[in-house]
Amino acid sequence: MMTFLLIFVCFAEDFSTWAAKQRIEAIPEQNYHSLAHMYHRIAQLETQKPGVIESIPLGRTIQKRPIWAFRIQEPARDIRVKVLVFAGLHPLEWVSNETAMAIIEELVAHPIDHVQVTVVPCVNIDRRLVTERELRSGSKKYRRSNGKGVDLNRDYAINRESNAFWKVFIPQYYTVSPSPLSQPESRALDDLAQQEQFDAVISLHSFGGYIFYPWAGRWEHSPDAQRHHQLASMMSKAQRHSYPYKSMQLAKWGFPFRTLGTELDHFYGKYGSLSFLIELTRSGLSPLSPKSFQNPFRWYNPRNPQKDIERGVDSVLALARHLGMEKWMLDNSH
After folding, report:
1. Could you give all domains of the chain from N- to C-terminal order, each with its CATH number?
2. How confident is the model at residue 176 (pLDDT cuts 50, 70, 90)?
């Protein structure tokens, strides 16, 4: 609790006051919203449903912007399961932010009994705002890192090393950040996980159409591989649309492929949380639109993301409800 008390002291104003100062500007993508728009909407939800949704300041980005999380629960129920969901490690993956926002809306309207879900709609805020400005100006730049040039998807502490033979020939698949938790954005999530001890952690990305589970940096199965696979399969089956996402261990996505220093391995390996990485969408590229291949934004985001947003929401809610019911049954089996 001391960590969060110190963070509150460092933040000069509460979320609603801060959100009201964020200027909403139009985004030239019909089915997407600016971060300011999302934060304004969340401030409205906080006013409408006090006690159901609570804002939490996690820390600041490399450029000193606040990172906000939102804790959602049914206030009349005791909490037996805690779930963390976060989005926007990579600044061009806007469908992840939209999915996080949709999860917040759904949970505020229908909290899950005995389950507390904490949602971070955007982690890499600095570069997300850069991509917003670039879209408005018509610029089409590829961006993946944070404000210091570090890939936050490679900045974690577990499985940073590999003795794989293939790394000599394809070293780009085996790169990591300069040191574990080198960036304030990564440390903010790690501090939160250490404080809360989440039962499950879900990281939202795009693209691919997969629900991945550990290990990402090691070929062998994790000790909880069977449970991870069962839960990931359940999340996939919960998706309301056809062509649900596939579930698999990330390291087995391709034979020589390893992803080192990921949040997926970190929250499982360090804290024992069930850990999943959802690759939303199968990209926004279209053979009928050759220009889409020249636009990095479209690589990750379809023109209409609604079905993939719903696939992501369905998956996250299915896991949270399942864990809540599972814990309730265990607590009442005596």
Report:
1. 2-331 (3.40.630.10)
2. confident
